[in-house]
TrEMBL record, chains A, B:
PANTHER family: BIFUNCTIONAL POLYMYXIN RESISTANCE PROTEIN ARNA, UDP-D-APIOSE_UDP-D-XYLOSE SYNTHASE 2. It comes from Sphingomonas guangdongensis. Residues 9-240 form the NAD-dependent epimerase/dehydratase domain. This is UDP-glucose 4-epimerase.
Length: 319, 319
């Protein structure tokens, strides 16, 4: 199947990854609809995107939306990782159960394929430093958010086994880039850039030596588009850069890029939800789909800073 | 800590494993209370057992029961594996959510340790024939029941990490022995023996070449008692015989034991929920707790047949 002309539904299309994915799918010639909450910035959604306002808990609306789609992208999350640990049961009710009902709705509605955005940063849990994690590594999440994502993967595996259900899972690394919410703790890059551009202190949680795998959102969206029509024998893939950076190095790169002094950096206490080291090995998706990260780190950082500046300039001038 | 005098609560104390565990704990000198549904056979529960009639969904009652216990045994299950696949969401609501709330109640109530009876037969999913599965093997359940058990394990791991919560997980193989419900499809041994003794045909699902790890319930109960006070560095263990038997061999052993002809065996269609091969490697619990299976297969079968005969004789005479 070609992505051009394919009917695609993006659940969570108004979020950071969703907006970027909708744009990438439209650019690839797909017929795209989004479902979820619209972003605050209405201009983020392209005008040729069909849109369903809807909630993840509204099973009837989701069942109707997925009917007859060639590809459904499931990007609807629950809480963010740190919050999920305060109320794990709420996360099961608000995210795991609706995900399971979504899978059942896709099966009943004849959806061609379900592509699930899992979390490469949380499903594995603590790993040895220096290791590039492969898909067969142990999975011991230290957040309820990660357990939730892992359970959805297991249900997709179950439905594949029992019903021949067509599902692809992408365990996505830490994405950064345009449309990332700086104020919702979605990621270090967006938060650091936004604080820096606003003239505010840049926070680092803990000693800043936590290592993460940062991937530009264009590369994530490209992997998801490709996964929509992939026809090989695998079904679960890491999507990462394969390179580790400390939070401190990221913040220092942001300061260097903007010509800021390092005393703008302030340290906050560490959190038990942060695994010390998380870098994904993306070899499998490379072999199977020919995907590889294409956006250079420095170039991605420059482009993201430019996008943030233009957006805030646009806001000031009312554009 | 010694098990003698320890305050123990067995959630699901009226089930097959629960009855046997309550008896073993009492025999070891523990102060034991049971919680759940009473067994049909009231004489199964020892008279010196305290009992709480209660439902798994009754969170307040469970929270009250677990308060101040040294060891809480969580044996409450949801549906049986085959049924769980018909309604996975019902399994999440009826079993995973109450398990999670139970963990939270134990943490809040100061429970000393939670011992969870997981399922060695379902959490791993399909494995290569001939392999004795170790605890670090991949976990790809082909039943919602198995996903559920696996998710509870992950939440216990999370609470260990976040809160230093004391939990031990036992992935139990296929238990057989006294108090197994022959009519509730709880296991091949009990069902085959009961049908044989009642003069009924003995059913085999599929070709009978499915291999399982059968363990006498006395050995399972002994492992759970020991796990209550184990103080080593591990927390998740297989509990199995380490030996595989085909369903056909089990049924033939039953026929041979009772002097029945093989034409009493009838074949039924196979089921997608049956993994072809499942044999657990019990080396870790052997090394860590000095536990080993002690009941010989033939001896266990003879004893179970004797128990079934005596029980049905007792019923006929009204004893």
């Amino acid at each position: 199947m070609s992505i051009a002309g394919a009917r695609c539904l993006v659940l969570g299309g108004g979020g950071f990854l969703g907006i970027n994915l909708c744009r990438a799918l439209l650019a690839a010639g797909a017929e795209v609809a989004g479902y979820g909450r619209r972003p605050h910035d209405r201009s983020a959604l392209p005008s040729d995107l069909r849109w369903y306002d809807g909630d993840f808990a509204d099973h009837a609306a989701i069942a109707q939306a997925v009917g007859g789609q060639d590809i459904v992208y499931h990007l609807l999350g629950g809480s963010v990782p740190a919050q999920s640990n305060a109320e794990p049961a709420a996360d099961v009710v608000g995210s795991l159960l609706p995900s399971l009902r979504l899978i059942e709705a896709c099966r009943a509605g004849g959806t061609g394929r379900l592509v699930f955005a899992s979390s490469g940063g949380t499903v594995y849990g603590p790993t040895l430093p220096g290791i590039r994690i492969t898909e067969d590594a142990p999975t011991n999440p230290i957040t309820a958010y990660g357990i939730n994502k892992l359970a959805v993967e297991k249900y997709l595996g179950l439905f594949r086994h029992l019903h021949g259900f067509d599902a692809v899972v992408l365990r996505v690394a830490n994405p950064y880039g345009p449309f990332q919410h700086a104020r919702r703790a979605q990621g270090v890059v967006g938060t650091a850039l936004a604080h820096a551009l606003a003239g505010e202190p840049i926070e680092i949680w803990g000693d800043g030596l936590v290592v993460r795998d940062y991937l530009h959102i264009d590369d994530v969206a490209a992997a998801m588009v490709t996964a929509g029509t992939y026809d090989g024998g695998q079904w679960l893939f890491n999507v990462g850069s394969g390179q580790g950076r400390t939070v401190r190095a990221v913040v220092e790169d942001v300061c260097a890029l903007l010509g800021l002094p390092r005393d703008r950096i302030v340290h906050r206490p560490g959190r038990a939800v942060d695994v010390p080291y998380n870098v994904l090995n993306p070899d499998l998706i490379g072999r199977e789909m020919g995907w590889a990260p294409s956006v250079d780190w420095q170039a991605g950082l420059v482009a993201t800073a430019r996008w943030l500046r233009e957006r805030s300039a646009g806001r000031r001038t009312g554009a």
